[in-house]
Amino acid sequence: MPLLKGGAYCERFQAVSEPPTPSISVIIPFYNASVYLERCLKALASSSHRNFELVLVDDGSTDRSPEIARQFTDRIVTLSSCQGPAVARNRGAEEARGAILFFMDADVFCFPDTLETIERAFKEEPDIAAVIGSYDDDPPEHNFLSRYKNLTHHFVHQLASPEGSTFWTGCGAIQKSVFQELKGFDESYRRPSIEDIELGYRLRARGGRIRLCKHLVVKHAKRWSFLSLLRSDLMDRAIPWTALQLSHGQILDDLNVTRLQRAAAFFVCLALLLVLVALKRPAFLLGTAFCLALVTYWNRQLYGFYWRRGGPWFALRAMGMHWFYYLYSVAGFVFAYLRFKVVRQNSFPASSSRHR
Prior knowledge:
single chain, alpha/beta, Spore Coat Polysaccharide Biosynthesis Protein SpsA, Chain A, 2 domains, 9-stranded mixed β-sheet, 11 helices, 51% helix, 15% strand, globular
């Protein structure tokens, strides 16, 4: 079985013939992650929590990732082709023996106390089904978009309700029994998308609780480019997440989709419209200034955080990027909403006939 004991790190994780039952199974899928994987596994090896097992899942990598993984262990779940993180995590969970499944990405570096924090959270609140954390406020990638993306994630999660509304596999743990009852992740998501959010929806629909632990943080090493950020935010998050919320008949009031954030998105769109009108009637620029001033006031804590972490020039660029985020998020919502209405309208006659 592709399991290994989280014992002392001596160049490789050491497996034993009959290891004791671990309390936590750390499941890390990887696909062409040679840039990050070694650092990820070295960080995990420094954990102060010793009673864990590591389940690595090679999702059909074509780079040096499997070779790097074998430097730490020979025991790896190998998929014949890239099938997406939902499938990879499910295969890893099938091999796990721990009562707690901790999902982590290959570009995430944990801290020595990460696993202890997770186990303590479940012990302190035995009725919770899952625990999620956040990225820290010191990302190792220093290009502008990587810092903007990671710092925004950190800030949003740190201000969110501790009673979590979604699950998250960048740093998320769930009771294995609950995961099995839910039958794991939806494998129809073939790309890194909202498979974790969708699992969280099903968990909460069954009355399960998710704890957002503010002091559970990990370091995210991914380097973002403009195109990768736009694709992730729009195609892999905004559009499918909107469709998911519409299908459940409820828009969340948490994280980056609170009522205030939706209002801010509306005023940024209105500001853009007033700019276009101002091309013929310059007086409308006053309306634009008012809209953006209102959005800035509503986000003053976030923009102040940008300033403290990156200085004034970084904060100004991050504000502009945040306003652009509002614009493409609204575009994604409108697209998903219209598509949802068309799909539902086209499927209605067929579904009606089945109930006659």
